[in-house]
Specification:
The complex is a heterodimer.
Chain A (H helix, E strand, L loop, with lengths): L2 H21 L1 H4 L1 H18 L11 H32 L2 H5 L5 H27 L10 H25 L3 H17 L12 H7 L3 H14 L6 H25 L6
Helix pairs in contact in A: 1-6, 3-4, 3-6, 4-6, 4-7, 4-8, 4-10, 6-7, 7-10, 7-11, 10-11
Chain B lengths: L4 E9 L5 E10 L4 E5 L6 H9 L6 E6 L2 E2 L4 H6 L1 E4 L11 H11 L4 H14 L15 H13 L5 E5 L7 H16 L3 E5 L3 H7 L2 E6 L2 E7 H6 L3 E8 L5 H6 L6 E4 L2 E7 L4 H10 L4 E6 L3 H14 L1
Parallel strand pairs in B: 3-8, 3-9, 6-7, 7-8
Antiparallel strand pairs in B: 1-2, 1-4, 4-5, 9-10, 11-13, 11-14, 12-13
Helix pairs in contact in B: 3-4, 3-5
The chains are: A mainly alpha, B alpha/beta.
Amino acid sequence: MNNHQIFIAYWTIARKESGRFLRIWKQTLLPSVVTTGLYYVIFGTFIGSQIAAIGGYSYMQFIVPGLVMMAVITNAFSNVVSSFFGSKFQRDIDELLVSPTPNWVIIAGYVTGGVLRGIVVGALVLGVALFFTKLTVHSWAIVIGFLLLTAIVFSLAGLFNAAFAKKFDDTMIVPTFVLTPLTYLGGVFYSIHALPPFWQTVSQANPILYMVSGFRYGFLGLSDVSVWASFSLLAALCIILLFANIFIFTKGYGLKN
Amino acid sequence: MPNALSIQQVSKTYASGAHALESVDLNVESGDFFGLLGPNGAGKSTLINIVSGLVTKTGGKVGVFEYDFDKQVEKAKACLGVVPQEFNFNIFETVENIVVNQAGYYGVSRADAKRSTQSLLKQLDLWDKRDQPSRTLSGGMKRRLMIARALVHHPKLLILDEPTAGVDVELRRSMWDFLRKLNEEGMTIILTTHYLEEAEQLCRHLSIINQGNIVEQGSVKDLLSKLHQETFTVDAFTDVGPDVLQKLQAFKARSVDANTFELNTSDEQSLNDVMRILDVAGIRVRSMRGKTNRLEELFVNLTHTKHV
């Protein structure tokens, strides 16, 4: 395939994947908006009004970036894991596997779908936040950089999960037992500086802390950990997961007999 | 001109340890209409899935036209159109999108893909269903959709894995005509089927595979010439008694009912002799028909021998 044909193949997959989540927006876009809206009401307004300012920002302002990041992580992951596993389950993934589309293009197409859903949901959740509080932006570049990298990392992770999943239950294990606890313990609702030293150290082993902190730094200029450490970790995860996916596609693990 | 498909010593052992293919050699000439026959579990689908890139072979070489499947996989795949045995499309996607997207995976521009899709869906009587989700199609329509999807990028080699399974007689005949037309236009076609009449009607060359090995291959004519015996069923206007059957002993005649009997003829025997004996005995023949498909007899002989 020449570059033009490769682009057509990529665009076909990306268009199909984006069309899928937009077509079923009530299942893909709305739930996160409703859930996060409830977080804003309960934690931000009701409980947040009784919590002291953090770094000069109200509790509501403090939790918005973390909640946006939580929505991005969940949606990027679940978009790819459910779409790719669905294709494996119905065997329409064979349409791609018999075609000359290179493996990295298939990966890029699915990741694009996940990233777009993450960004769309992130933007919607951020839009809802504006009904509750004012937001400042310390650095657009950091906000966009962390948003994109996080969405890419979790789209790649979703693809990896889906490739190995043998039944629908296998696609739910990571979101339920890994992503949700790590996100809740990743500094979305609190600064890790509020924790005892031991738990501060333990928290630093949680990769989601770096994503939430880096993203929050983009808005507020506040971070629990070094922004460069966060950026480096995200970049490293991107590269590792990309090569892991290319490896399993090349070998056909979970895809071919 | 290189062969459309060259398979050399291809083997496949699954993780369970099951040997699906032992060491298969197969060549399909460019422009051929080739049949791959075998009982269930013989290894037909495994072989086709290896060529399609859906199953990883354990050993051997596969070439598609001038391309080595291991070294030039993208170019090899670009030559192939594959119609699998099982329905494998997104049940929520519309008929038109399924075919247009498939063209996109081969790098065909959306405008060209839409044109080809329209032409194919019209030829296959699916154009009226273009906006419907694929799950609403009947079984026959789904089969035709898979054919349209496999053809949308204009492959040089079309592989069909039991394309007419579960399809009614009328539709099967129209699909045969469609496939014949494609072949006449220069497309190489490889077909697996359980309908041996289908293979006899369509294919010029055949391979019979059993227990992961090719047990016979050659032209349909040559293969049928290896069949040394045919069975006929004869219906008479009057009762055929034991004395008449006795006279037909050389043909192993046996009674089916009062005025019907079966007989076997070998390569050296002539049906004229049968007619002469019946004529002398005063038996008027109402009809005579081959009891089984000739290829089916050969198939059963070969696969049964191998089993034994």
